[in-house]
Hints:
The relative contact order is 0.13. The protein has ten helices and eight strands. By secondary structure, the protein is of the alpha/beta class. The longest helix has 15 residues, at 170-184. The N and C termini lie far apart (35 Å). The strands form two sheets. It has a six-stranded parallel β-sheet with strand order 2-1-3-6-7-8, with helices on both faces. Strands 4-5 form a two-stranded antiparallel sheet. The protein has helices at residues 11-24, 37-44, 58-64, 88-96, 109-120, 128-136, 144-154, 159-166, 170-184, 189-199; strands at residues 2-7, 27-32, 48-52, 66-67, 70-71, 79-83, 101-104, 125-126.
Amino acid sequence: MTKVLVLHDVSLVRSALAALLRSEGPFEVTSAGWRTAARQSACLRPDVTVVDLDCPGTTAVLADGRRGDQQVLASPSSVLMLASTGAPGSLHRAFRAEARGYVDKDGSPGRLVRAVRKVAAGERFIDASLASAFMEADPVPLSPREVSVLARAAEGDSIAEIARALHLASGTVRNYMAAATRKTGARNLIDAIRISRREGWV
């Protein structure tokens, strides 16, 4: 029996994904929101973790693999991302985080089932439409740490909160913010967040 953990902040969506997987194969499926993701992942040790790349909170986890003091994903190498071709910057983030599979959200349910089986077997899975988006996308100009800091700032975290969560000094957080603002060509931090969201980096 393949153990699958579905992570999504929207209850209806994660329930629908879990129901789909249960009906299509010998899958033991558990669904959770980000608040309980760390506990569920640690307890279940899933063979595959399905994550929606557009779900709020995903960016910070992809950038540094952690949320607060907890490792959110027990095994990042078993992550299967649900993504769309309209956000190539997000795809780059997922690729740098070493996700094992990428499924186009506009594809058929059967593609998701096939991808889960492939990832559970230790294989890679990339939808052809997403592979094209990978090739066409410009590289993300921000480092993973800059993305992480910017993502947390975008969620409303203060400098002190970001520093605690990422185990950095407040001055270092400010330096990352300044670097991200410069690299995006933004006028200020708020503008950097806006540009990064538009490009799919955060």
